[in-house]
Each structure stands twice: as C-alpha cells, then as structure tokens.
TrEMBL record:
Name used for this protein in its record: Mini-chromosome maintenance complex-binding protein
Gene Ontology, cellular component aspect: nucleus
Record keyword Methyltransferase present: no
Organism: Capsella rubella
Location within or outside the cell: Nucleus
GO terms assigned for molecular function: chromatin binding
Family matches, as PANTHER family: MINI-CHROMOSOME MAINTENANCE COMPLEX-BINDING PROTEIN
The entry's keywords: Nucleus
Domain of life according to the entry: Eukaryota
Any one GO biological process: DNA-templated DNA replication
Chief subcellular location: nucleus
The organism's taxonomic lineage, starting at the top: Eukaryota, Viridiplantae, Streptophyta, Embryophyta, Tracheophyta
C-alpha cells in the first residue's frame, strides 16, 4: 500500500481535496451533510499524539510569519480574546456533475449560472492573541524549525505541483470552457454567499482590539466541526490549521515606518489580512503548563517520592537565597506557587492561596522584589505585574469592556489566562484620592483576589467570569486594598549573591511545579478525624478564626502534600501545616 497522496504539512488543502474526492466515492453527500467532517480530522489528529510530527509544524508568531508559506500547515498558540460569532460561506458547489469544496479556504469559488448547485455552510470566528504575560522560555526555538520546514517545503514543491495539476486538470478545463461560453468561475469573498438572503446574520468584521504589544501577532481562527461548548473565552489553545495571508503586503507594511499613528490605528480596526493572518483550524487542543515544557512533560507518577523530595530541596534552597535566607517566607511562597482553584462552593474558590509579604519598602523591593519577579518569570509560563499606585488605579483599564461601535470586546489588564501569576506592588502607594475609575479598579482587584472572578462590562449589563490567578502582594503594611489569604512579615537576614541556574535545573523545577499542581489529593478517613479535632481546637483557642481560615489550613495541607509528590495527607505533613501557621502568627505579633 502506497503512502499518502499529499504531504499534509506543505499541502494541507491538497489533502482536504483528496479526502473529499474519496468521501464522495464512499457515498458522502454534500447536499445533506451541512459541512460535516468527511475524514479530514483523522488525517491531522495524529499530530497531537506524535511528538515527532507536531515538532515539524511551525508555530505562527511575529518571527515565523516572515518565512512560513501561505496555505501550509501551521499551529498558533494563544488565548481566545474575543468570540466573533459565525460566518456563512459557500462550502461546496457542483462543477457540472462533480462536487467540489471550498472548506478551509478564505475565498469561495464556484461557476456562475442559475443552474449551479451550492451548499452554504457555517464556521465560527475566534480572535486570538498571544497569551498575556507569556514568558520567553515557553517559546520554541525557531531557527532549527525554520530550516527543517523550508527543506521540507523545497523537497515537496515539485511533487505538490505535479499532483495538484493532475487533481485540478478537469477543473481547469471546465473553467476554460466556461470562460469561452462567457460564464467564468466566480470568486466569492467570505460571507458573500448569504449576503442577499440573510445579510444581518453575517458578522461584520469592523474592528479589532489592540494587540498586547506592538510586535505581538494576533490571529483570526476559523473553527469547523467543533461544538460551541468546547471552547470558551480566555482558553489557552493550540490550533493546527491552514494559514492564509498576503506575505507581500505584510512585507511591504514592515517598511512603512513613516505611517502616521492615525492611519495605523484605522487599518488595525479593519482587521486586514496583511496584519491579522487567518488560520483555518483542522484540529485543536487546550494547553496546560506541561505543553510549554521543552523536555519531559511531567515528572513520573508519585511512586518515587525521593525524586520530588530532591527537587523540592533544591528549589527551596534557591527561593530561600532569593529571599535573603528567610526560610519561612520561602516555605509559604512555594505553597503559594502550587496553589490552584480546584473547586467552587457558592462564591468561594476552593484552592486559592494568595500571599501578602509585608515589611517591604521601595529600597527592599528594588532588591528582593525585582529578583523574585525575575525568578518567577523563569519558572512559570505566564506572569504579570501591576503597580498599585493611585495614578495607575485612576487611569488603567483593568476590566474588559464591550465596544458596540466596533462590536468587539476590548481587553483589560485582567483579561488573562488561567494559571497566570500576578504580582501587585503596593510599596509605592502614597496618600491620594481614587476617582470613579480607581474605585472600580480597586473593586475589580479585590473581587479577583477574594472570589477569583473578573467582571466584564457589556455596557447594558455586567457579567462575572471565573478565573484562576495566583496573586502575590508586596506592601509595607498589611494591604487594605488586597486582603490576602496569607499575610506574612518578610524578614531577610542578608542579600545573597545571585545564583546561576543551569537550563537543566530550571527545566526540572518547571516540571516539578507543573506536576505538583496536576496531582489529585485526598484525606484518609482516620486522619480526617484528627484534622477535624485540631480545627475545632484551633477555633476554640482563637475565636477570630472563621470558615475561610479553616479552609486555608486545608489548602495549605494539600499544597504541602503535593509538594512532596504525595496525593494523600499524612500526619507528618498536617503537623507541618500547624507549625507553619504557628510561626506565621508569631511574626504577626
């Protein structure tokens, strides 16, 4: 049996057309299928399970867009920033007695004439951006991939041309014949298929929100054969699909440095293909932290606790050094870094563990805060920082807002992906007055910290969106704006020399953090009685303890266990929790 007739990497549309012909011969009926998949997904689904296959597919970004070829297979990793609704297109048409398809194409073509049979299908539009705060270590090295891809493109170009010519020979003959008869094939732009019948239903691409940075590459992803419930706003997704864009126009715009800001802004509002490439998605997958790791994805299942213990010790030593040998602060920082929302009860996000390090001022923040921020960027995939000053709160756009004039969701600073780590620096906060914007922003931040929800403003109504963000606050005294789950006085004893970390060690720490966060956790029935008894005793000793404080202790117990690679709480680790809590309260006296 021979190999595939088309190379899926360099000629995915050829594979689509070839599989369409095969499906027709097996009884597939475009007139009744409503665009349902005819076997294309099976051709490309293996890429996500075969590391050697997916590693050959270029990742679309601001660098690779300069050398990837149109109509080739690419992948885009990003966050769904806006969902633009559905669009209609001419998915299939009859050329004489033969069905042909325009699926996964920007431009629909079909022969003119009243006798032409055409099927109008539907696809969804997602506006995707690079994940806000994505750190450099998560990006794949592009030069090696570029060379490999260009070699493959060159090797397959001649074969692709020969097979395409054979495949489209009859189509070209029909086109020539139709041209002689005065009825050439018509090329139809997106949405034109239904412009006369239901023009109001076709979304008008009138504007896009600004990119996260000047060199960030955004992408308009077109989704086929996927339930609407499968993808939601702010999901981090890897899309594998066919790239369409105008490389010449894009290269031309790179040299136009003299264009005025007003013109650039007007062009971006129109979402031109030379600025926002289109990706026709074949298959996709939601991304977790392990998908951004370059080595082994996760540590082995917790059958070898010694591995976890060794990596934990080395990471703890590193964190303690960064924090001026404050070992207690390092312990709480590790628990904070391992926290994640794993459940919700009413308005309570179970599993969150925000941390407020106090007794920091401008001087100490410039040393310890800067070092810790840089370290977290090298350990975590997504990190952001917000300066908590009066000026910032009074002027920043933290919450996303719907612009009905552009019919777009305009992003706010707090429209971020689950798993993002957020540092809030309150050390430069001075006395002042918050205006209405500042009050709204302060409430948004407080709601995010307490409930792990962000309020989206849709002008006529507001909607809360659940999220999962780790929040670390630096302040001189206990923060009044951000009431964290844990408040800990920071007590460094010295400023240590920065330790040089090898790439292998950094990757091991990243794998460790990702693995620990992915572990399940439970408390055995026997130990549960001990825990309940200790919690009752703690509440009798300190009447100020509320249900949230008791929940926090259970969250700390979970984090202690998984930090050692264990999925069941032990008595030793529960006693460690109680001891850490005792030491923290001593510092607060």
């Amino acid at each position: 049996m021979g190999g595939p007739a088309y190379d899926c990497l360099t000629n995915p549309l050829g594979a689509v057309r070839f599989s369409f012909v095969n499906a027709l011969s097996s009884g597939y009926d475009p007139a009744s299928s409503v665009g349902k998949d005819w076997g294309v997904l099976d051709l490309f689904r293996h890429y996500f399970s075969d590391e050697s296959a997916i590693s050959q597919v270029p990742i679309l970004d601001s660098s690779s867009i300069n050398w990837v070829q149109p109509n080739t297979l690419v992948r885009f990793r990003g966050m769904i920033q806006d969902m633009l609704g559905n669009e209609f297109y001419a998915g299939a048409y009859k050329d004489g007695s033969t069905w042909r398809t325009n699926k996964y194409c920007d431009v629909s073509q079909f022969p003119e004439g009243s006798s032409t049979e055409m099927q109008v299908w539907e696809r969804r539009l997602l506006y995707c951006i690079p994940v806000p705060g994505q750190n450099q270590w998560t990006e794949c090295p592009s030069q090696e991939l570029k060379n490999r891809f260009l070699d493959l493109t060159g090797q397959n170009r001649e074969k692709r041309v020969r097979v395409d010519e054979e495949m489209t020979d009859s189509l070209e003959s029909s086109t020539l014949e139709a041209g002689i008869n005065g009825s050439p094939f018509k090329k139809m732009k997106v949405g034109e298929a239904t412009s006369s019948a239901s023009e109001s239903q076709v979304p008008q691409i009138s504007g896009i929100p600004p990119a996260t940075s000047t060199d960030a590459l955004t992408c308009l992803v077109k989704i086929y054969d996927s339930p609407e419930s499968e993808l939601k706003l702010n999901d981090v997704v890897e899309f594998l699909g066919v790239l369409t864009f105008d490389p010449i126009a894009m290269m031309d715009t790179d040299s136009l440095d003299v264009i005025s800001d007003d013109l650039s802004e007007a062009e971006s509002v129109q979402m031109p293909s030379r600025k926002v490439p289109r990706l026709h998605c074949l298959v996709h997958r939601k991304l977790e932290t392990q998908h951004f790791l370059h080595g082994s994805s996760l540590l082995p299942e917790p059958k070898s606790p010694q591995i976890f213990k060794e990596i934990r010790e080395s990471l703890m030593k590193y964190l303690s050094g960064l924090l001026g040998n404050d070992h207690i602060a390092a312990q709480f920082l590790l628990l904070h870094l391992l926290s994640k929302v794993h459940g919700r009860v009413d308005n309570v996000a179970v599993g969150k563990l925000s941390l407020n390090l106090i007794h920091l001022n401008k001087e100490s923040m410039s040393v310890f805060g800067t070092r810790l921020g840089d370290a977290l960027k090298s350990l975590l995939p997504f990190t952001q920082s917000i300066p908590l000053t009066i000026e910032y709160l009074n002027t920043a756009s933290l919450g996303p807002k719907k612009d009905y004039g552009l019919n777009r969701l305009m992003p706010g600073v707090l429209q971020i992906a689950d798993g993002t780590h957020l540092i809030l620096d309150e050390t430069e906060l001075q006395a002042g007055t918050l205006n209405s914007v500042g009050v709204e922003n302060a409430n948004l931040l407080k709601n995010l910290l307490e409930c792990q929800k962000v309020e989206y403003d849709f002008q006529y109504y507001k909607m809360e969106m659940a999220t999962d963000v780790q929040m670390l606050i630096f302040s001189e005294g206990k923060s009044n704006i951000m009431p964290a789950d844990l408040v800990l006085p920071f007590q460094p004893s010295q400023v240590n020399q920065l330790e040089v970390i090898t790439p292998e060690t950094a990757e091991a720490w990243r794998c460790y953090l990702a693995t620990c966060k992915s572990l399940s956790h439970s408390i055995g029935q026997e130990l549960q009685q001990v825990v309940e008894k200790d919690l009752v005793a703690a509440r009798q000793t300190d009447r100020s303890l509320g249900s949230q404080d008791l929940s926090r202790l259970l969250t700390m117990a979970r984090m202690i266990s998984v930090s050692y690679g264990e999925t069941t709480l032990s008595l030793e680790h529960w006693q460690m929790v109680l001891e850490l809590e005792r030491l923290r309260k001593e510092r607060l006296k």
